Amino acid sequence: MTITHKNASVWYSVSGKGPAVVLLHGFLEDSTMWQDLVPLLSSKNKVICIDLLGHGKSESIGYVHTMEDMADAVHTVLKHLKLRKYTFIGHSMGGYVALAFAKQNTHNIKGLCLLNSTYSADDDEKKQLRTRANQMIQTNFNNMVRMSFANLFSAESKVKHQEAFDAALQIALKTSLQGYMAAQEGMKLREDNSKFFANATFKKLIIIGKKDTVIDVESTIEFSKKHVIDYQVFSEGHMSHIENKEEFLQAIGYFIE
């Protein structure tokens, strides 16, 4: 289904009945990343999957999509569905969007799971990398996407889950140039939400991949311990829903219960 948000078409799907669970994919992904999770959750929950701005079947609204812009599009969908309370699961960039949403609508949030994601802002080095990526992507889209995507999986996973890796890469390659650049700019601008997340009273879970090159694993574990936030560490990289599928499904099922 689609809904219009700021003259752009935003795609979403709804499965099942019960308490609302909102699934937000990451950068260069779309809602199909949740294909194994939706059947598990929709037996007892209303599961809403949303393609974020400039990704999947959702259009772009500009050349900068801040996390707040994306959260506003999510809000348009949830308001249309007349939902008031929900649990969010956000993968990578989807986690940043979930945090931006939660900051603006804290009283509506029952729980939030950061899946291979972080509450921290980009440091200067990361911001420079995003700027450089946006310069290079304009002339070398395919190679840039392939290169950045390959880093998300552990070396073993790329071999072990080659079919799923290839399928996810094909989705990444379908992302529009505008969608790519707008998301990079938005991630670069995002706020540090560590204090907000630490103090939030809704249910929280952080899922970490031990070999994740995107997230600072050690500091995330320290942060979780310090603020008594539930966390789980899986054996592989940034794509836990593929690389550690069974543990991922079990952890999310338990979190939603």
From TrEMBL:
PANTHER family tied to this protein: MONOACYLGLYCEROL LIPASE
Domain AB hydrolase-1: from-to ranges: 19-244
Species assigned in the record: Olleya aquimaris
InterPro entries: AB_hydrolase_1 (IPR000073), AB_hydrolase_fold (IPR029058), AB_hydrolase_sf (IPR050266)
Pfam families in alphabetical order: Abhydrolase_1 (PF00561)
Domain of life where this protein originates: Bacteria
Protein name from the UniProt record: Pimeloyl-ACP methyl ester carboxylesterase
Gene3D superfamilies in alphabetical order: alpha/beta hydrolase
